Amino acid sequence: MTNENIRLTQTVKGAGCAAKLAPGELARALCGLDLPVDQNLLVGLEQADDAGVYRVSDDIALVQTIDFFPPMVDDPYSFGQIAAANALSDVYAMGGTPKTAMNIVAFPSKTMDISVLRTIIDGGLSKMREAGVVLVGGHTVEDSELKYGLSVTGYIHPNRILTKKNLQTGDCLIITKPLGTGIVSTAIKAGMADQSLIDKVTLAMATLNREAALVMETFSVHACTDITGFGFLGHLAEMVVDSGHGVRIMSELVPMYSEALEWADMGLIPAGTYNNRSFRGSFVDFDSKVPQRVQDLLFDPQTSGGLLIAVPANEAVKLVDALKAKGIEVAAIVGEVVAEPVDRIVVE
Ligand code: CO
Ligand code: CO
Ligand code: CO
Questions:
Q1: Would you call 114 exposed, middle or buried from its count of C-beta atoms within 10 A (0-12, 13-18, 19+)?
Q2: Which numbered ligand comes closest to the C-alpha of 96?
C-alpha cells in the first residue's frame, strides 16, 4: 500500500470550502432554543467553552468534546494524527484527562481507496495511544468530502475545571505553539510549501497538548483555552469579553512561522482569517506600529494549535521554563491581563 500520489487536500472540487461555520452562525442557530437545565451540567452550551463538563459525583466530572474536519495535509497518517491531536486538545484545555474516544468519519468511498481511511485511523490511533486514550467505537458515513475526527470523553475533578472565564488583573498570558498554520495549510493546498516546512508544521499540529497540560496542572492557572479555528485573537476575545478585565498583547513576543508572515504579505490568507476579524475585530485595538501581516497572523485560524494560558505573573516565568524543559521550546509570555480598558484587547 502506498500513499505517494495522494493529494488529500485537493479531493474536493470548489477550492476554499469552509471547514466550519463562520463564528457567530451557530449562536444564531441556537438562539431561543430550549436548552437543557441540569444542576450537574457544570459547563454547557451557554458558556461556549472548549468542552462540556458534567458532574457524576463530588470527585468526578465527565469532559466531553467532538471535533472533525477535512484534510489540511496530504499525508493520510499525518492527517489522522493531527485530527486526533486536535480533538483531544479541548479536554487538555479544560484541565481534564482524556480516557475514551470514538472515530467520526465521512469518507468518499466511490473516489478514494479504503486503504486511505485505514491509514488515517492508524495515525489517529497512534495519538490516542500516546494520550492513554482507548478507542471504543465510531461512526462512518459516505460523503463526497473526506472528514475525520474524534469525539472524546475524559475525567476532571469538578473543582479543578479550567474555563475561559477567570482572568485576573496581573495575570500573564502564555502560548505554547507558533501561529500561522492556517496560512501554511493554504500554501500547502496551493502547492507552494516545501517539504521541510510541511514536515515542521505537520509535527507541530500533530503534537498533543498533553505535556503542556500536565505542566500547567502544577501551577495556579486561572484560565485556559486552546487556539484553533477562531485564531489567537478570536479565542482570546472569548476570554476577555464580559470578563471585566482588559488584555495587552506584545505582538513581537508572539511566536509565528516566518514563512506564514511572508505569505501574508503576498495576500495568501484563508477566508477564516477575514471571518475571525469581522466577528471579533471590534474588541481589538491595534497600535499603528503593528504590521498588517502580524495582524493577519493573530487572526489566522489554527489547526490543532497550542494552549493559551492565564497564570499569575509571579508564576509565569517558572511556567514557561517548565514548558521549555518538557520540549515546548516556543512557549512564551505574550501579554498580560490589565484592569483597563475593560473587555478589550490592546495589541502593541
Ligand atoms: Co477549544
Ligand atoms: Co474544538
Ligand atoms: Co479551558
A1: exposed
A2: 3
